[in-house]
Amino acid sequence: MFFFFFNNTFFFCLFLQAESIINSHGIVELNVFRAQWMSELKPNSGSNGGNRGLSSRAADLRRKQELAREEKARELFLKAVEEEENGAVYEAIKYYRRAMQIVPDIEFKINYSRSPDPDGGNEKDMDGEIEDLLAYFHQQLTLQDNSLKICVPEVEMTQMHISALPPEVLIYIFRWVVSSDLDLRALEQLSLVCRGFYICARDPEIWRSACLRVWGRSCTKLVPFNSWREMFLERPRVRFDGVYISKTAYIRQGEESLDGFYRAWHQVEYYRYLRFFPDGQVMMLTTPEDPLVTVPRLRSRNTRVESIMCGHYRLSQDTDNQTKVFVVVSKRKEEPATPMCYRKHPAPETEHSFHVGLQLSSGGRQSFNKLNWIHHSCHINYRSTGETVVTAFDLDQMYASFFFARVKSYTAFSERPL
Fold this sequence. Notes:
The protein has 418 residues and is of the alpha+beta class.
């Protein structure tokens, strides 16, 4: 009698649990529960171990339900990540919320497997895995005559397919994708098209050319890196697909009113912009205008923005393994205006240049996205005497750090191949 009452109570509890599963987690958990319930209704072979069998089956049921919930939450979370990368933030929030309602700590139970971002992310494939994957793709795409077939058309085509091009031509096209602006992000995205494009995107000569454009003769040897791609991903460098922005804000006391009753206070805000180019050129601009207005004007080095300073930069790595960026900029030379009057003692002709020292570091999930001030000075050169006067500025709270902001329009077009 007690055993019968226990079975009825147990099935009634399972029924309540099934009802809660339907309301909260959906059809996947219900199917698991229904299959387990039907298996429990079958007659048992032993009578003495009935209670132990029920408890073990209940534990298995809970374990299967937890696995089903975790799998469903994982799918929703990965879907949210995909929507967020595509810019659909509102849809991503909905998927995040649904995933965390099922498993609150699902974020820490997911193993991310994405292709590395050569300009932003810290997730990088291990060299051994890349070599094995390349060898595997080579083996799959090699024909009987030992020739490499990059790709094959999925459907029949009446026009010429890109697979008819030899690998050398495809790699040259890939160099146009990278362009002279070193858009290696586009190359990584292109490698996701198919296995043949993945092989072409891992061509060592492309990555070697990119490294030579960034570091010049200082990267003739791979040591301590195992490949040119690894060097480009891990060695500190400035980024070219955006602009470094520094915002400075402070409060300044104004003049006293005429009646002496009050004194105004002004909040001052201005921005500093640094735009680096792969050929060693750099542009620097200080302006109170918002980045939404200023950033599009810095796309070309031939911009006509007033008060912009142009110059060159170089990278330096000290013994303390800290990478520093040294910048020298000056205003563009303009044609002198015709003087309206002649002075008896004209002002001496001078040239002003600004020397800036910055320390490169990484912050958050992005790499090489922060520049800290370490030096700032003004050099005045008198042409008549050749004398140079140097004025060093004190670095205080007015020198805020630069943070990188990626600008898609900077790499939207290719003017020259790599």
